[in-house]
Amino acid sequence: MRHLLIIFLALAFTSVFAHADKHVNLGDRATELKDEGKSRDIHPSLAEIRKMHPEFLLHKRDKTLRQGVRTQRDSLKECVNCHSSTKNDEYVPINAPDQFCSTCHQKVGTSLDCFSCHRTTPKEGL
Amino acid sequence: MNIRYQQIEGRSLGFYALVAGLGVLILTALGSVYFMEHHGHYVTGMNNRIVWGIPHVFALFLIIAASGALNVASIASVFQNKLYKPLSRLSGLVSLALLAGGLMVLVLDLGRPDRLIVAMTEYNFKSIFAWNIILYNGFFVIVAVYLWMMFERRMNKFSRKIGIAAFIWRLVLTTGTGSIFGLLVARHTYDAMIMAPKFIVMSFSFGLAFFILILIASYKWGDRPLGDVILNRLRNLLGVFVAAVLYFVIVFHIGNIYLAENNNVEMILFANGSIYTNLFWYGQIILGSIVPLVLIYHPAVKGNRSVLGLASILVIIGGIVQMYVLIVGGQAYPLEMFPGKDILEGYGGIVAYTPSFPEIALGVGGLALALVVVTLLVKFLPFLPESLADKVADPHHKI
Amino acid sequence: MNKELNRRDFLKNTTAVTAGVATIASGITLTTFAANDNPVTNEKRWGMLVDTNKLTESNINDMVNACQEENGWGSEIHSTGHQKPSWIKKIKVKDKVTGKIDMLPMMCQHCEHPPCVDVCPTNASMKREDGIVLVDKHLCIGCRYCMMACPYDARSFVHEDLSNQKEHMPRGKGTVESCTMCVHRVDKGEMPACAEAVSSNGVIFGDLYDANSKINQTLKKIQSTQIRTDLNLNTGVRYSGI
Ligand code: SF4
Ligand code: SF4
After folding, report:
1. Is the CB of C152 under 6 A from ligand 1?
2. ipTM of the complex
3. Could you tell me what percent of chain C has a pLDDT over 90?
4. Low-confidence ranges of chain A (pLDDT < 50)
5. Maximum alpha-carbon separation in chain B
6. CATH number of the domain encompassing residue B357
């Protein structure tokens, strides 16, 4: 049992690290922050955010929607704000092919349902 | 009494044509679903006032018919009626098939059918709808077990007990389905507890009509003997049920008329010449109740199978019309938001509803699914007795 | 009814970080609202009092427009007629006896005992502790039973694909929506957009329970009513003048 678990975890992690550290399209603001060396302030552990972001978001969504807890930490809006990129001075929807969210989601074949309702670009007038 | 069950041949051209025809209907339904889900519900005739349309008419019709189709098995096992015993397996099968068809339609019309898993994991136990999901799933399990008990010789002895369980379960199920409407306080067209018993007799009648049709068709097309004893019994039973539905409809509407508040709602049904008035009188009352009653009881056509088949078809059509009047007609009339005031602007009026092709295709697809399930399963499993000639069905019958 | 939230309380040990992030991220969002990490409680009950005598027709139109503007509904392309969403609408009624004509805005009444919440199979329709009734679109399967149950025709089903939603107001095809009492503004300490659109005292928004609030005091003084009081839903939206 133990062995199986270890094998499973190992596999799971390798799948996360498989496509290395380079993310094809990090998004404008996130790239800036990374260059300034500040990205670790936001995501202390890359492995954690990669693995756990669905849980973070899920947890946050219930708290915000049902209890009115509105913090920036783990807010989907903030994900979109940092990880969107622009093209010809216009934001590209974050769920478009080759954009931050969809690259990974396509690769691992998981659906991306957030944006059937949520706005796909940072707030108007940014 | 020794009844031998046997699969049907299922190699004739007619058989394949039937399966292919039903298959086309099902594929059309699936195509329609894809179309509706891809574009969104704007391609349907449904809107924010008529939120439930043709798909729900078919879905709820099939679901209540499903519970009624189990009647024959119930009469056999619960009330120990020997004559119906050989029909029990078919009765269980028709019932499961109709439920599957109804649920397919209900689920595929959801705004987000991809989230079906949410409906299975997040339950609001105050919601009658959530209870219905449990009831439907439970019905599948119970009837499946019931069938198994009937098929498996060493389990036969339990079949009565489980038959009783299935009987109770399905009464609760129909009550639950009726309560979907009966418990809507805001809608005076629905808000009445008589809804539940009314749904139960409706289920008896629609379910039996399906059963009779399938029975006649499979014995005729399968070239197996089917005696008059059984058919005459079923005929009388159908007559009683159709009359009972008619009685409930009358009581229900008279009751509504006496509640002054509902008066004008009733008027749209009875007198104002809207589509619902016509559907109610011509479709539900005349075509779906009175004509079948005449066909069933008129001495001149007594014993004529085609006439019995026709009566069953009319009961089914009448039933669909009745669900239409109930579900769509009940929403078309505006909510009574300001008693004592007329609404001049912003809300009100009787809303028109024009079902679009995809919705109709989806509804019909559910019906087709039910029929194809029956057709295929009687081929692969021994559901049908080899013979239902009078001699076999009722050895004490004197000719 | 309340969803379990203690799965893993990430936020607990990250509040310290939140402050840090706020400074980093402030360059991006520039919003100044205080991070609100306390769950809302039932010590408050948000409500609204609409005085139809003080509202002109154009006031009501302004309210509708403000709501559309704020929440981004009303620009659907494909939906026709009754398929179009309507979170708030202008209604004109005439008394059958006296012939008196009144005009009023109608939206979700934020019932204390909301039928929509009772019937929703998946808990998607829900009432916050502070009385605001919302649809959790993550859970909504689009069955529309809540629309059947609502006595006020307050809910709309989204009939088509949407894009470019407001950042604070996710909306999407196949789910049901209705007036949120501008919950995103209320949580920031602001008023709902419709209330703000009327400069007179025609619409008063506030905490029904707070004895010092304007809405509480006004309700004590003047005659007011709920629509369909007979249903005993104890609505959060009250009317006077009709
Ligand atoms: S007005 Fe309708 S949608 Fe709003 S809380 Fe009441 S029942 Fe629900
Ligand atoms: S449409 Fe959505 S919110 Fe309404 S009852 Fe169904 S699941 Fe609940």
Report:
1. yes
2. 0.90
3. 82
4. 1, 14, 17-20
5. 72
6. 1.20.1630.10
